[in-house]
C-alpha cells in the first residue's frame, strides 16, 4: 500500500520545497547542491497568487509550484515540478502533474513552463502528457536558454 498523498502546501512548507528543489537540480545536473539554486527557489515560492501542491509520505517527496494568472489573463505558469531523486521514474511526477493540471483548470485555460534543452527526462514527461513547444527563452536569473512549452486545459 502506497502512503503518498498529494495535498496543498502552505508558506510553512517553503523551506522543505526549496531544499527538495536544490537536491533535485543537483541530481539532474550531477553536481553538488548549490545555495544559489536554493535562493532562487525560495524567491519563486513567494510569488502570489500561486498553487503549491505537495507529494507527502508524510515527508516531502515532491511538489509543483504554479503561478496563477492575474488581471484577466487565462494562462498560468508551472514554475517548479520536483520529485525526490529516489522516486523519479516511478510515476509520481506524472501523478503530481495530473493533479496540478486538474486544479489549475479552475483558474486558467492554458499553462506554460520552461525547461532546459538538456533536460530530456523532463521534456519526455511533458511531451507525453500533451505539452508542446512554443518557443525558446532564457531563465531570467541565470540567462540559461530553455524551451517554452504550453498545454491547453
TrEMBL record:
<dbReference type="GO" id="GO:0016746">
    <property type="term" value="F:acyltransferase activity"/>
</dbReference>
<keyword id="KW-0012">Acyltransferase</keyword>
<dbReference type="InterPro" id="IPR016181">
    <property type="entry name" value="Acyl_CoA_acyltransferase"/>
</dbReference>
<dbReference type="InterPro" id="IPR050832">
    <property type="entry name" value="Bact_Acetyltransf"/>
</dbReference>
<dbReference type="InterPro" id="IPR000182">
    <property type="entry name" value="GNAT_dom"/>
</dbReference>
<feature type="domain" description="N-acetyltransferase">
    <location>
        <begin position="4"/>
        <end position="153"/>
    </location>
</feature>
<dbReference type="Pfam" id="PF13673">
    <property type="entry name" value="Acetyltransf_10"/>
</dbReference>
<keyword id="KW-0808">Transferase</keyword>
<protein>
    <submittedName>
        <fullName>N-acetyltransferase</fullName>
        <ecNumber>2.3.1.-</ecNumber>
    </submittedName>
</protein>
Amino acid at each position: 500500500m502506497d502512503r503518498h498523498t498529494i495535498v496543498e502546501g502552505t508558506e510553512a512548507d517553503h523551506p522543505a520545497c526549496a531544499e527538495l528543489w536544490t537536491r533535485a537540480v543537483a541530481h539532474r545536473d550531477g553536481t553538488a547542491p548549490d545555495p544559489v539554486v536554493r535562493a532562487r527557489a525560495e524567491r519563486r515560492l513567494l510569488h502570489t497568487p500561486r498553487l503549491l501542491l505537495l507529494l507527502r509520505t508524510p515527508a516531502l517527496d515532491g511538489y509543483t509550484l504554479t503561478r496563477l494568472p492575474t488581471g484577466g489573463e487565462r494562462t498560468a505558469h508551472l514554475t517548479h515540478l520536483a520529485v525526490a531523486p529516489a522516486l523519479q521514474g516511478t510515476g509520481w511526477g506524472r501523478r503530481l502533474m495530473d493533479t496540478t493540471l486538474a486544479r489549475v483548470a479552475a483558474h486558467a485555460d492554458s499553462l506554460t513552463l520552461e525547461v532546459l534543452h538538456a533536460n530530456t527526462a523532463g521534456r519526455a514527461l511533458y511531451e507525453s502528457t500533451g505539452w508542446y513547444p512554443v518557443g525558446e527563452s532564457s531563465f531570467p536569473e541565470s540567462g540559461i536558454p530553455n524551451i517554452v512549452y504550453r498545454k491547453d486545459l
